[in-house]
Amino acid sequence: MARVLVVDDEPQILRALRINLRVRGYDVDTAASGTQALEMAARHPPDLVILDLGLPDLQGIEVIGGLRGWSTAPIIVLSGRTESTDKVVALDATEWHLLEFLLRHPGKLLSQRQLLAEVWGPGYTEAAGNLRLYMTQLRRKLEPDPARPRWLHTEPGMGYRYQPDPVPPSTDGERPAS
Prior knowledge:
By secondary structure, this protein is α/β, with parallel strands linked by helices. The chain has helices spanning 11-23, 34-43, 60-68, 84-90, 93-103, 112-119, 128-142, and strands at residues 3-7, 27-31, 48-52, 75-78, 110-111, 152-155, 159-162. The radius of gyration is 19 Å and the shape is elongated.
């Protein structure tokens, strides 16, 4: 049975998520602080973490950093914050660099070696497992259906490609202004 760690300092949110997830067959651990979350995760490694960014003792970003030191479990971030910079920081910095590099080259096939060298450095050009893991995590976080990616495509044996949605034609025959 999959284990979910829910981290939030609001008791009502913890209770609601714990009840809903247990009804759906998940083992659920809860923590009301960042310190509790890291201790709980060390005792019972989660398969998924649901994390509020605003915690009383540690920032959610610090909890992510602590988890990422040893865990690759997906993290769903809950946040009442409106600033996009908080949300971007929550996306793991390796993941962010990979996504940024793909987005800078829309439609272009980028080889595994090229991506590995750009994101992790020249010493990692043979670490294809890292690349597959981070692409999977990005798809889970960004794609509507990760099993059938809309934007982040794999070209088997070759590399990856970010394919933006095509610009829809305008109804009056003219291209939309950019």
